[in-house]
């Protein structure tokens, strides 16, 4: 199956070994944290994010469904900031400067 999703990942997984066992048939040759997160999404959709234990945030663009998903761990340790202006979506995982903070929704 050809992947139709693009993942931007920032984080670490504390349960890599468990996920590797669950997703061994879905990973192809890549066993990175981002590949694990993508395999979780492809198997269980957004409901599968509960299986990602650790500090993380991600942006998923699913071309097949025409959606963009922003998600982070339950504690929000790695927050996402976003702004939508003139049909353009701007996303950051850290607020770099005060000027950027002013423009970003929280």
What descriptive keywords fit this protein?
106 residues; alpha+beta; Glutamine Phosphoribosylpyrophosphate, subunit 1, domain 1; three-stranded antiparallel beta sheet; two-stranded antiparallel sheet; disordered C terminus
Shape: globular
Helix-strand pattern: EHHEEEEH
Rounded to an integer in angstroms, the radius of gyration calculated over CA atoms is 15 Å
Number of strands: 5
Average pLDDT confidence is 83
If strands are numbered along the chain, what order do they take across the biggest sheet?
A: 1-2-3
State the CATH class: Alpha Beta
Q: In terms of topology, how is this protein built?
A:
Layout: E1 5-11, H1 16-23, H2 33-44, E2 56-62, E3 67-72, E4 81-85, E5 88-92, H3 98-103
Antiparallel strand pairs: 1-2, 2-3, 4-5
How would you concisely characterize the structure shown here?
The protein is an alpha+beta fold and 106 residues long.
Folded structure, characterized:
The protein is of the alpha+beta class. It has a single domain, classed as Glutamine Phosphoribosylpyrophosphate, subunit 1, domain 1, CATH 3.60.20. Helices cover 25% and strands 28% of the residues. The chain has three helices and five strands; from the N terminus they run E-H-H-E-E-E-E-H. The chain has a three-stranded antiparallel sheet, covered by helices on one side. Strands 4-5 form a two-stranded antiparallel ribbon. A hairpin with a 4-residue loop joins strand 2 (56-62) and strand 3 (67-72). Helix 1 (16-23) packs across helix 2. The protein is globular. 14% of the residues are buried.
């Amino acid at each position: 199956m050809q992947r139709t999703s693009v993942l931007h990942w920032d984080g670490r997984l504390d349960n890599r070994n468990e996920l590797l066992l669950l997703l061994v048939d879905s990973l192809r040759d890549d066993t990175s944290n981002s590949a694990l997160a993508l395999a979780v999404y492809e198997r269980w959709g957004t409901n599968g994010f509960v299986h990602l234990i650790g500090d993380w945030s991600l942006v998923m663009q699913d071309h097949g469904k025409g959606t963009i998903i922003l998600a982070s761990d339950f504690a929000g340790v790695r927050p996402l900031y976003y702004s939508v202006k003139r049909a353009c979506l701007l996303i950051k995982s850290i607020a770099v400067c005060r000027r950027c903070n002013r423009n970003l929704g929280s």
